[in-house]
Design brief:
This protein is mostly beta strands. The chain has one helix and six strands; from the N terminus they run αββββββ. The protein has one domain.
Amino acid sequence: MDRNDIRFAQNFEHVSLQNADGTPQRWRRNGKTQLWKTRPSDFRIPIKRGLKEFHNITQLNAQDFEVIS
């Protein structure tokens, strides 16, 4: 996933994790992208799934998510 693609994306699908019915897990943005001046390759995007499941997309796990429309 390219850093420029995910900065403005609203919805994401996990590449390997699936729901009980076999569809990919869908996550949505839950805040704004955090960037650092001292570490230009680092970023963090808060995401959520359902009502109580929260996570972050970072440069370390970005390959596990795809942008969906």
